[in-house]
Each structure stands twice: as C-alpha cells, then as structure tokens.
C-alpha cells in the first residue's frame, strides 16, 4: 500500500508528462479502496482508444482512471 508522500512524489516526477498526453485533463492523488493512496488520471472521455496509450502503472504503482470530461474554469463572483 502506497503512502501519500510516495504518490505525491510520483505525481511530481510524472505529472507534467501525463498531462501532456491527449485526453488527460487532470492528475491527482486520491485514496484507493484499501485506504492507501493512488495516482489518478482524469480523462476527457471513457473511449477505450484513449486509455490504450496510457500506462497501467508507473514505477510499480497502479494508475486509476476516471473519465469525467474536460475541466472548465468557472468564474467566481464576489458574493459579499
């Protein structure tokens, strides 16, 4: 089971490269089912061809995939 620090370091080393790949809209550090930590790639779609070019693991750590569409910045209004 990976620690949060291990996965954050993995993200630091590989995050920019992963974000540069087609269809990858985000890279995050999240908890897995066993309450360890995992590197998660957020994808613009769940097309199988998109995942075919992405790694199943990096440096022995499995990668989780989450298809949620592209991220969009939302304007924040000052509600005071």
Walkthrough of the structure:
This protein is an alpha+beta fold and 80 residues long. It has one domain (4-67): 2-Layer Sandwich (GMP Synthetase, Chain A, domain 3), CATH 3.30.300.50. The protein has two helices and four strands. The protein has a four-stranded mixed beta sheet with strand order 1-2-4-3. A hairpin with a 5-residue loop joins strand 1 and strand 2. The longest helix has 16 residues, at 4-19.
Q: Stretches where pLDDT falls below 50 for ≥5 residues? A: none
Please give the order of strands in the largest beta sheet.
1-2-4-3
Q: Helix/strand-derived class? A: alpha+beta
CATH architecture level-2 label? 2-Layer Sandwich
- The proportion of residues forming helix, as a percent range, comes to 25-40%
Number of strands: 4
- Range of strand content: 25-35%
Radius of gyration: 14 Å
Please give the CATH class.
Answer: Alpha Beta
Task: Please summarize what this structure is.
This protein has 80 residues and is an alpha+beta fold. The protein contains two helices and four strands. The protein has a four-stranded mixed beta sheet with strand order 1-2-4-3.
Which keywords apply here?
80 residues; alpha+beta; GMP Synthetase, Chain A, domain 3
């Amino acid at each position: 089971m990976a620690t949060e620090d291990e996965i954050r370091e993995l993200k630091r080393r590989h995050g920019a490269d992963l974000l540069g790949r087609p269809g990858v809209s985000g890279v995050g550090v999240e908890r897995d089912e066993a309450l360890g930590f995992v590197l998660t790639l957020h994808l613009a779609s769940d097309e199988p061809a998109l995942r075919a070019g992405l790694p199943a693991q990096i440096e022995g750590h499995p990668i989780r995939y989450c298809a949620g569409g592209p991220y969009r910045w939302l304007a924040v209004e000052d509600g005071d």
